[in-house]
Amino acid sequence: MRGPRALAGALALALPLALSLALPVAAHAQATANTLSSRLDPTTRVAVQAIVDSARLAKLPTAPLIDKALEGAAKHSDGPNIVSAVRQLSVELGQSKRVLGGGASTAELQASATAMHAGVSSRDIALLRSAAGPHRRVTLPLAVMTDLIGRNVPVATASQVVVGLARAGAHDSDLSMFERNVRLDIERGADPSAAAQTRARGVMLRTAPRAGTRPPGNQ
Amino acid sequence: MSDDKLFEDGVIERIAGELRDAERPSAGFDARVMASVRGIARARQREHRERRRLWNRVSQPRTITVRPWSVGLAAAALLLCASLAGWGAHAFARMESAAPAAASGGSQRVQFVLVAPNAKKVAVAGDFNGWDAQHPAYQAVHRGGGVWSVTARVPVGHHRYSFVVDDSLWVADPTAPRVVDDDFGTTNSAIVVEPEIR
Amino acid sequence: MDGSSDAAVVARVVHGDVEAFGELVARYRDRYFRYAMHMLGNREDAEEALQDAFTRAYRSLSRCDDPERFGAWLFRILVNRCRTSGARRGRRLKTFVSDDMALMDASEEHPAERRAWREEIDRALARLRPEQREAFVLKYVEDLGYDEMSVVTGVGVSALKMRVMRACDRLREMLSEVHSV
Hints:
The complex is a heterotrimer. Chain A has helices at about 1-40, 40-55, 65-75, 80-100, 105-115, 120-130, 140-150, 155-165, 170-185, 190-205. Chain A is mainly α. The termini of chain B are far apart.
């Protein structure tokens, strides 16, 4: 039976070749999936994967969700807590996409989700988007807003200050300097709210305000 | 003690003395801690047994008999591998975003510095390295005087990270914006990396 | 409780003797509960933070580099937990319920006055900024040196000294307001 033997021979050559092409690519995906497997218990991994799959269907970035799960594993958090954190982040990414629009970058969505997690409302994020103008990325302003809240500036004040700075045309470099100065003032004992409002006024004096802009807080 | 005298000297000592008088945890506290600890121990044992069971199954030698009809099976396997390659590529693209970025212009070199005079080991862990405090590229070096630093590639974008001191203490970067991110009981720092302007 | 060192008990736990962890709990729970109470202001939060710290310590026990200094390592975990708990729930300016048994020891003051004074101290402590409260309690209640405080908190010595100084100023100010009425 030459025919079948010849076919078997051809397959014997082709099979290893096909495997050698398929396996490295599948292996990388498998290796990454193995990372989640090796760091999460099976129940948690399945739950996280379900959230990731739903996020992908909703065209949301999935890397932040995987990273959140890995963070939880690294910090020895329990499974339900990890799943809860990943789910919450997924919700916040979805809300961010609705507020910032389909053109928002992954970085902006992540920064927005982080700000929402800190307590910033969708409304204030929408105000920031509008104040910054259509061509300006809001990643850094959102990070500064989150930082202020983390240093005990009330959420409303932090939002108002950063939106005001964006409206006044402050650049990312101005915002970075502003964040640094507020941080140092607070470390020296200043009241966080006062520090944020005072330093914001300083930035406003240096930047060219748009017509009708008023500095935030009390004069 | 009169009010004036109270506030001339030793007020701090008096306050501290009061505060050293303290309550104790409620009865049953120890039992609750131990119940939680026993639960963790049992879960670990179950996981260990499961891993051993899977490993035993995978590592058992098997005899494979080849028959003529297995040629058709090999052909089907070939088709399966071809489609796996397609699936694998898709999964790779899906998972790629979770891997550290290649140093191809989509990342910048960033210096991380922490002053920690009593630390024996300092590392950086964040979403750019899978929160892996053992990642070799993110181990800080002690430069003297309690100053630890590492310069490493961070992909363009918004990231969260933390220093890990002595493999146990998660410390936010004092010089970086904070993230109100207490999902797992520690504060993280944020970094926004912009693309290089050419 | 036997006289084994912390390192010996840790070694037993790491090698599978889960019940031995109970010895470590018994050794540290009272002192660290006191710290958690001062930081968080109420029994429920303090017990939850301390229980969480013990659980986390058990989970990562094999990573404790210096088991002889288990206590300091556990304290670092607790300090972190208290920071998170305080941040998440917000500080609650509630009336501190003092344990009468703790306060009814020999005192030349009337018990009711003594209790009132203690409540004023607790209220003033609660009104400090979290990082100042943390530094004050570690320094003056837990009697740590600044180097130890630096290890436990991850904060530099000079920043800690400033926080302690500010805390003392604020406490004096607040408590003198109370007594000047």
